[in-house]
Design brief:
Elements: H1 14-48, H2 56-61, H3 67-84, E1 95-99, E2 105-110
Length: 111
């Protein structure tokens, strides 16, 4: 009787295991890139296109001396994205800005 007989499932070959591993790594890399890119876009809009009506300077001022870190992180993410994806478009801030010695950032004139 087929229903009560033990079903034997063949163990995947080494090649099949490697292929599955490769596909999983590719999938995770793609998801990671999309997640980072989406979050970067959300942060960008919160700073430069704030829907609550705050100016970029008002938003940046909330970071105090950590504002420099936000700009360095943004630059790093864009550098990584551009190196990983040939059609990635690097965003240029719509305004000039100055990173001050204390880590605060001053938003300047539009570019």
């Amino acid at each position: 009787m087929g229903l009560i007989e033990e079903n034997v499932i063949a163990e995947p070959t080494t090649e099949e295991k490697l292929e599955a591993t490769e596909q999983k790594v590719k999938h995770l890399c793609k998801n990671m890139f999309e997640h980072i890119n989406n979050n970067h876009s959300l942060i960008w809009d919160l700073v430069w296109n704030n829907k609550l009506g705050f100016t970029p300077q008002e938003v940046i001022d909330t970071f105090g001396t950590d504002a420099k870190d936000l700009f360095e992180l943004s630059d790093g993410i864009q550098t990584l994205a551009a190196s990983a994806c040939s059609d990635y478009v690097v965003k240029t801030t719509p305004n000039e800005y100055t990173v001050n010695p204390d880590g605060t950032v001053t938003i300047g004139e539009p570019r």
